[in-house]
Amino acid sequence: MTIKLEKNQTGIAGEFYVAGELSRLGFNVTLTFGNTKAIDLLVQKNNSVYSIQVKSIQSSRSICWNIDKTKVFSDHYYVLVNLHVDNPERKPDFFVLTGTEVLILFKNTPKEGEKRTYLDYLKLLESPQYKDRWDVFEQSK
Fold first, then answer.
1. How is the chain split into domains, by residue range?
2. CA 53/CA 15 separation, integer angstroms
3. For the residues 65-77, what does the mean pLDDT come to?
4. pLDDT for the residue numbered 78
5. SS3 sequence of the chain
6. Distance CA 29, CA 27 (A)
7. What topology is assigned to 7-139 in CATH?
8. Helix (H) or strand (E) holding 23
9. pTM for this entry
10. Angstrom distance (rounded) from CA 41 to CA 98
């Protein structure tokens, strides 16, 4: 059975997976709604609050995450998720980056420059320091 999610389903699934994982790790998590789409999750632990943007792709065959660099903030965190809907037995991959790392790692597209940038999934797999890096929240404050 082949599963194909709509774009909004992919985003919502990624946000809920990240919220669940952070909750499992002892963080208090709030999903944002409405006009706060630069922030998908507000996360709190040990008197520190973190703003998180989640970007999701559907499958192992997905090639990259896209982001508008003009909307990246250095004090936010970004969690990139591969849902692996093409392999339901496989758990999602999570990559946790700071806003500064996003600005460095995401590559500009030739046509639109910083307005549309991408980060290749296979390239990120070659950088294991970002995979499941949930402790970045504890280290940053």
1. 7-139
2. 9
3. 91
4. 97
5. CCCCCCHHHHHHHHHHHHHHHHHHCCCEEEECCCCCCCCCEEEEECCEEEEEEEEEECCCCCCEEEECHHHCCCCCEEEEEECCCCCCCCCCEEEEEEHHHHHHHCEEECCCEEEEEEEEHHHHHCCHHHECCCCHHHHCC
6. 6
7. Trna Endonuclease; Chain: A, domain 1 (3.40.1350)
8. helix 7-24
9. 0.91
10. 14
